[in-house]
Amino acid sequence: MRSYANRDKRLLKKYKHTDERSNTMSKAKIQKIIDQGFNCLYPLSCKSNTDIRDAMLQEEIKQEKWFRKCAPSSHYQSFSISTKAKYFVLSSVRSAMLCPSNAFRPRDILHCKQSYILAHAVKDDSRFDLDEMFADFDWDAFNDIEYRLGDLMWFGSTEEAA
C-alpha cells in the first residue's frame, strides 16, 4: 500500500506545470508578503510589558501543529508551521482592523481564537495604531493569498477524471 506522502509527491509533479495552478502566486512572493506584514507588527513587541506579537504567533503555531496532527495527511504542506501561523496572525489583525469596535462582545471569548481576541485588544489600545503600522503594507496582495485554494496548501485537482 502506498503512503499518502508518496501520492502527494506524484500529484505535485503531475500538476506542477499545468494551467491549474497558474493563477496562484509563487512561493517566494507569498513568503515575502507574509514576512513583510508580520514585521509591521514589530511595535507590538516593544511598547508593552507583554510581547503581544509573539503571544499571537505562539497561539497560531499551537493551532497549526494541532491541525497537522489531527488532519489526514492527504495534502502537501508547502509552507512551514511558522509561515502559516504568521498568515493567520495577519488575518486576525486584518479582521480586527475592518471590524467596527462595538462588534466584539465579551462572550465572544468563548468562541474565538486567542489571536483574534488579542488583535481586537490591540485595535482598542490607544498605544497602538494599526493603520499607521500597516501604512506601507499591500493588503491587496495579502488578500490575494488563498489558503484553501492552493497558495498555502495544495490539495491537487478538484475535478474528477473523465
SSE topology sketch:
Layout: H1 4-15, H2 27-40, H3 43-46, H4 52-70, E1 76-77, H5 81-98, H6 114-124, H7 130-133, H8 139-143, E2 153-154
Antiparallel strand pairs: 1-2
Helix pairs in contact: 2-5, 4-5, 4-6, 5-6
In words, what does this structure look like?
This protein is globular. The longest helix is centred in the middle third of the chain and has 19 residues, at 52-70. It has helices at 4-15, 27-40, 43-46, 52-70, 81-98, 114-124, 130-133, 139-143; strands spanning 76-77, 153-154. The protein has 162 residues and is mostly helical. The protein contains 8 helices and 2 strands, in the order ααααβααααβ. The protein has a two-stranded antiparallel sheet with strand order 1-2. The two termini are 25 Å apart. The chain has one domain (25-71, 78-146). The model is unreliable at 14-22 and 154-162 (pLDDT under 50).
Please count the helical segments.
8
| Average predicted local confidence, pLDDT | 77
Element string (H = helix, E = strand): HHHHEHHHHE
* Strand tally: 2
Strand count, sense and barrel status of the largest sheet are: 2 strands, antiparallel
Distance between the termini: 25 Å
Q: What is the alpha-carbon Rg in Å?
A: 18 Å
Strand fraction band? under 5%
Number of domain modules: 1
Shape: globular
Strand order of the largest sheet: 1-2
Q: What structural class is derived from the secondary structure elements?
A: mainly alpha
Q: Give the low-pLDDT segments.
A: 14-22, 154-162
Helix content: 40-55%
